[in-house]
Design goal:
Helices cover 23% and strands 50% of the residues. With 153 residues, it is of the alpha+beta class. It has one domain (7-152): 2-Layer Sandwich (Alpha-D-Glucose-1,6-Bisphosphate, Chain A, domain 4). The chain has a seven-stranded antiparallel sheet with strand order 1-7-6-5-4-3-2, covered by helices on one side. The chain is globular and about 55 Å long.
Length: 153
């Protein structure tokens, strides 16, 4: 079987206003136990490997199997962290062991009157059979930000 070699790029920016102080929103990313409370697919996924190393140069890994579906693997490296201001990562995704994409994501935290304005901006490169998955990445990220909002309530 021949694999068609393709490459596609996708960019998106999502902004949410959370009625929580910036320290609380920040800690949802910076504290391992808090991140475990909201990150991922919840009951839709059987958890696999997990690693958390929140520091510049540190790596996170989140792997899991969707019920009756594929194994998803996320590996991120923190490239910049400014407390209560920003987190920048590069990350790779695999589906059933096949490299799907590489992305750069910036997470910004801004204090506002009602709490915190959070902005996630991402640029992804999608490989071969996954070349059309950019819109799915944005949808998945929206789901994560929804889960964060529920967690912060």
């Amino acid at each position: 079987m021949t694999v068609e070699r393709r490459l596609a790029r996708a960019e998106f920016t999502l902004t949410r206003d959370y009625p929580a102080p910036i320290e609380r929103v920040w800690d949802a990313f910076a504290d391992e136990q808090q991140k475990l409370s909201w990150w991922g697919a919840g009951d839709a996924m059987e958890a696999g490997e997990w690693a958390f190393d929140f520091r510049v140069g540190g790596r996170d890994i989140a792997e899991g199997k969707f019920h009756d579906g594929p194994v998803s693997r996320y590996e991120a490296t923190y490239t910049d962290i400014v407390e209560h201001n920003r987190i920048v990562t590069t990350y790779d995704m695999w589906i059933d062991g096949v490299h799907m994409s590489t992305s750069v994501a910036s997470l910004e935290f801004e204090p506002i009157d009602i709490g915190t304005r959070f902005t996630h901006a991402e640029h992804g490169v999608f490989f071969d059979r996954f070349w059309a998955d950019g819109p799915g990445r944005e949808t998945g990220t929206r789901g994560l930000l929804d889960a964060l909002g529920v967690y912060l309530m």
